[in-house]
Design a protein that fits this description.
about 290 residues, D-Maltodextrin-Binding Protein, domain 2, Alpha-Beta Plaits, 3 domains, about 25% helix, about 30% strand, binds adenosine-5'-triphosphate, binds 1-O-pyrophosphono-5-O-phosphono-alpha-D-ribofuranose, binds magnesium ion, histidine biosynthesis
Length: about 290
């Protein structure tokens, strides 16, 4: 029988769209119609399980799924034996302590003897222990931001991204206790045959991620500036240089890192580059 791997992804929520887009960008085709909780790819030996994110670390640790995509917050909270293969760069958020806007806050001692509502009792408990704060942790599974206004707790510890949910509920963020993003996790006891398939998937994911974090750049420059320009955008091996129809000018093609983009462009212009085009890269294999 053909070996096939299983990946657990969130059925619907903050991780779902980016998880599925990443898999599609890896060229893997599958059906994910509403209500379908299991699906097999038509062109890659992988089966999908669509689950609540809370269950993903446990399924992977138990070997029910070989891989999973989950937030680091959920992974640390569930404290299961899994291997983190890769940070995925999406669903970035933080776990923070928040209190009613009207309260004065002078520091973490504020929480001594207070009650705090959260869906992350382990992460919060470990944090409070490390800070030597005794507080009562009130575990609830969702809509945590409502807790202070209904008298359930004095503060909360929950996920924050833009901060708008806190604001809409009359709360202010006072301590960030954990930073999170989506990660690809694996069962540490995976077989060698399955590991081969995982490696193929990782190769594709790396190519997609590298493509996203780099740009293809094309520009024109006087030949006298070429040395300087080549030193600014050395590219993968070295830039391509093609002569323009106009005497004394060349076209330079190279790759630059997205996060150095604006700095590079300024320096390239100062070095005499003009007609600069920057183009997205779909995949990049080094
Ligand atoms: N506002 C946000 N911005 C970015 N990432 C977020 C945000 N909220 C949550 N996340 C990340 O996405 C994960 C899933 O969040 P979501 O709100 O979809 O979970 P959920 O409601 O527990 O879903 P499920 O029904 O699967 O249990 C979180 O554990 C966190 O890592
Ligand atoms: O800082 P913000 O940008 O407002 O994001 C934070 C909110 O996002 C998440 O909830 P989500 O909207 O996913 O709904 P849920 O509570 O149903 O999971 C999280 O639980 C916070 O409540
Ligand atoms: Mg959940």
């Amino acid at each position: 029988m053909e070996t096939i791997i299983r990946i657990a992804v969130q059925k619907s929520g903050r991780l779902s769209d980016d998880s599925l887009s990443l898999i599609k960008e890896c060229g893997i085709k599958f059906y994910n119609g509403t209500g379908k909780l299991k699906s097999t790819s038509t062109n890659f030996p992988i089966e999908f399980l669509f689950l609540r994110d809370d269950d993903i670390p446990g399924y992977v640790a138990d070997g029910v799924a070989d891989l999973g995509i989950v937030g680091e917050n959920e992974l640390v909270e569930k404290n299961k034996e899994v291997t983190v293969l890769k940070k995925l760069g999406f669903s970035k958020c933080r776990l923070s302590l928040a209190i009613p806007k009207s309260e004065d806050y002078m520091g973490i001692d504020y929480f001594k003897g207070k009650s705090i509502a959260t869906s992350y009792p382990k992460i919060l408990g470990d944090y409070l222990t490390a800070k030597n704060i005794q507080a009562e942790i009130h575990e609830i599974s969702g809509s945590v931001e409502i807790a202070p206004s209904i008298g359930l707790a004095e503060g909360i510890c929950d996920i924050v991204s833009s901060g708008s949910t806190l604001m809409m509920n009359g709360l202010k963020e006072v301590e960030e206790i954990f930073r999170s993003e989506a990660v690809l996790i694996a069962d540490p006891k995976i077989s060698a045959e399955k590991q081969d398939i995982v490696n193929k998937l990782l190769f594709r994911m790396n190519a997609v991620q590298k493509g996203k974090s780099n740009k293809y750049v094309l520009l024109n420059a006087p030949n006298s500036s070429l040395d300087r320009i080549v030193s600014l955008i050395p590219g993968m091996r070295s830039p391509t240089i093609l002569p323009l129809a106009q005497e004394g000018w060349s076209s330079v093609h190279s790759v630059i890192a997205e996060d150095q983009f604006w700095e590079n462009i300024e320096e390239l212009r100062a070095a005499g580059a003009e007609g600069i085009l920057v183009v997205p890269i779909e995949k990049m294999v080094l």
